[in-house]
Amino acid sequence: MSPSSNRSIMVAGGAGEIGEGIVRAYLDRGATVFVPSRNWEMLDTLVDELRDVNGTFVPIHDRTDTFEGALAIKDKILDRTDHIDVVAASLGGVELGERLVDTRLVEWENVLRDNLTSHFITAKIFFPLVEESGGHYVMINFSGGEQPLWNAGPVSIASAAQFMMKDVLCEEARNRETAVTSVVVRTPVSTRAREKQDEGWLSCEQVGRYVAWTTEEGKDLVAGRTIPLDKETYDALAM
Ligand SMILES: NC(=O)c1ccc[n+]([C@@H]2O[C@H](COP(=O)([O-])OP(=O)(O)OC[C@H]3O[C@@H](n4cnc5c(N)ncnc54)[C@H](OP(=O)(O)O)[C@@H]3O)[C@@H](O)[C@H]2O)c1
């Protein structure tokens, strides 16, 4: 039996490009995976794409961008299970725009809403469930928060703030057993919509397997850490 069998996982952003790989990785391990999304079409596509997997896929259509929507999602999850072992949050996305000083206010606000406020809403509603189980809370991030990316100022700034959100969640966790981790994907990622263009790229399935691995290893290895992930790191694990 794989370490994730019988576990309940919630992947926030599971209908997204990277999220799909994370969902697949946990399903392959036999887990029950809850995937909320605002987008019925994406959820229907996932149902088709994930037909061949072992675990139980539970799509949930609701607003992911409001407290009310997230609370409704939480209620639907708790109708099916009494605990959540892992929340993986793969939210937002990397968008190129203008130089920071040329960025319009509306673009700045959109990027912050999608890349930071989305994490706040998810943490506010779902982190307490992970605290209850003493489980894992994993945030997926990109390298713009470590090293500014040209013409991606707002998303780089949101990414840097996301690292601090991880630290704040760690610091304030009521249950010290709770592990909070940032996985920083340092390569572009190939997905169903985007073919691999370079050997150094990871695929969303590889990112997913790595994220699942971080929540199956001893917590002392990952808790509170920011873990950079590139092709070399992935290959070294020989997963
Ligand atoms: N794609 C890459 O090549 C790459 C590379 C390195 C790192 N990353 C990182 O991986 C993470 C996910 O990226 P991605 O490319 O998979 O993004 P994506 O395909 O655009 O998916 C993002 C998900 O975020 C959710 N989302 C967006 N705005 C939201 C909002 N305002 N409120 C609630 N949910 C919101 C969406 O939820 P709905 O389903 O409800 O619409 C969607 O499922 C990001 O942190 C990104 O920086 C991506």
Biggest sheet statistics: 7 strands, parallel
Output the number of helix runs.
8
**CATH structural class:** Alpha Beta
Low-confidence blocks of residues:
none
Bound molecules: NADP nicotinamide-adenine-dinucleotide phosphate
Shape: globular
| The CATH topology | Rossmann fold
**Count of DSSP E strands?**
9
Question: What is the number of independent domains?
Answer: 1
Mean pLDDT: 95
What is the CATH architecture term? 3-Layer(aba) Sandwich
Helix content: 40-55%
Strands of the widest sheet, in order across it, are 3-2-1-4-5-6-9
Q: TL;DR?
A:
With 239 residues, the protein is an alpha/beta fold. It has helices at residues 17-28, 40-49, 67-80, 105-133, 153-172, 204-214, 219-222, 231-237; strands spanning 8-12, 32-37, 56-61, 86-89, 136-142, 179-185, 189-190, 202-203, 226-229. Helices cover 45% and strands 18% of the residues.
Explain how this protein is built.
- The structure is a single chain.
- It contains eight helices and nine strands.
- The protein has 239 residues and is α/β, with parallel strands linked by helices.
- The chain is globular and about 50 Å long.
- The two termini are 17 Å apart.
- The protein has a single domain, classed as NAD(P)-binding Rossmann-like Domain (Rossmann fold).
- The strands form two sheets. A seven-stranded parallel β-sheet has the order 3-2-1-4-5-6-9, with helices on both faces.
- NADP nicotinamide-adenine-dinucleotide phosphate binds next to helix 1, helix 4 and strand 5.
